Amino acid sequence: MTAIRGTIGVNKRPGELGAHSLDLFRMAVPDLTTAETFYRAFGLEVREEGNGLGIYTFGNPHRWVGLTEGPKKALQGFSFGVFEEDFAPMKRHVEAQGIRLLDPPRGIDSDGFWFADNNGLMVEVKIAAKTSLDGKALFGGLDPSVAANTAGSWSRTKKPQIRPTRFAHLLFFTPSVADSIAFYSRALGLRLSDRTGDIIAFMHGIHGCDHHMIAFVASDGKPAGLHHCSWDVGSINGIGLAAQQMRDAGFTKGWGLGRHVLGSNYFHYMQDPWGSWSEFSADIDYIALDHDWAAKDHPEEDGIYVWGPELPEDFIHNYEAG
Ligand SMILES: [Fe+2]
Questions:
Q1: Cα–Cα distance between 184 and 187 in angstroms, integer?
Q2: Per-residue pLDDT tens for 101-129?
Q3: In this model, does residue 272 exceed pLDDT 80?
Q4: Which of 11, 152, 192, 306, by CA, is between 20 and 30 Å from 4?
Q5: Residues at Cβ < 5 Å from ligand 1 ion
Q6: Ligand 1 centre from 217 Cα, in Å?
Q7: How remote is the CA of residue 169 from the centroid of ligand 1, in Å?
Q8: Smallest Cα–Cα separation from 142: which of 233, 247, 207?
Q9: C-beta contacts of 53-57 below 8 A and 24+ residues apart
Q10: Dist. CA 236 → ligand 1 center (Å)
């Protein structure tokens, strides 16, 4: 589903500046071997790279996550992709906002430019292929209804292995949801999709994008931290099978199956070994490049889900806050 950057008016909103994709996120974890086991069970390809790990979806050369080893789990930052012709204007725009450009973190080769966000997370802006979708992803082949006289399901031993097709979005803890909305609008041209007061907010890119590429949730402490990364599996059956795949591999704590209100996606979250979550997702709302989505402030009861099991007690706990 990866699109090549390209033609104005086809997969680019003309005349406006903004990042088109969340290209990658970086995180430190206390134990790379444990991380490798978790993300492999999740259906992702994990490669050893330098001192860390790169995480990929099978069949796609795009690197979605960079993991390094550190004393504790710590979200470090993000790379956002821009179209080639927008790179220099975007750099001028960021500097004109009074945001100071910084050197890349030690050990990272980069042709992009870097700055710190309002939470102290390092942001890279670079020229990259557009990995956000160019249209709504419709349900895939695992959700058909079969004809009469045919068995529709799989046996336990013959059920398909699920491999997510792409990294979809990331939600992180912030001491201030309002400040984060303001920063990411101002610096990267992202737009607010929906919010619930100062508790949670979702933002999309202007060049055609899921309902959210990045989102913020109020932290119960400082600093910022990863809440969850989300991976598209394309169907409800895919979500159910993937969650079973994790339980079969010994990762039993999750939350799902359910459906969100804001973004509308079906979900099942699995807790990672450090208390944050990885989401299997399908059928998220899509905002086309020529559509101005009317952002709303929703009541608190709609902030998390429309249906699903009871929330785990620590679902919204920032383990990086200590
Ligand atoms: Fe999500």
A1: 5
A2: 999 999 899 999 999 999 999 999 999 99
A3: yes
A4: 192
A5: 230, 279
A6: 11
A7: 6
A8: 233
A9: 57/163, 57/164, 57/165, 57/166, 57/167, 57/231
A10: 15
